[in-house]
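Supplementary notes for students who missed Thursday's class. We covered one full example, reproduced here. Read the sequence, then the structure, then the short commentary at the end.
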Amino acid sequence: MASIAQHSSNSERYFAALALAERRALHSFFDQHIIEDKRLGYFALDEGDYNALPAHLAARVVHTVQGAMSDEF
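Structure (token representation):
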């Protein structure tokens, strides 16, 4: 699920998306990506929403937070 941070400056949007991705990664098996968008700024995207991240999104990934859930036990 993509989540959009609603803030005024581009750097605020980035850090809001990063904070959201870090929180979501704690409870997910999937990586959380920060995507740059010309119109929206930055948003967090859960890799689990796609079988493989489409090329048009993969090209705009600026940061990835690894999913932190482990299914070893």
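Commentary. Residues 27 and 69 are 6 Å apart (CA to CA). The chain has a mean pLDDT of 86. If anything here is unclear, bring it to office hours.
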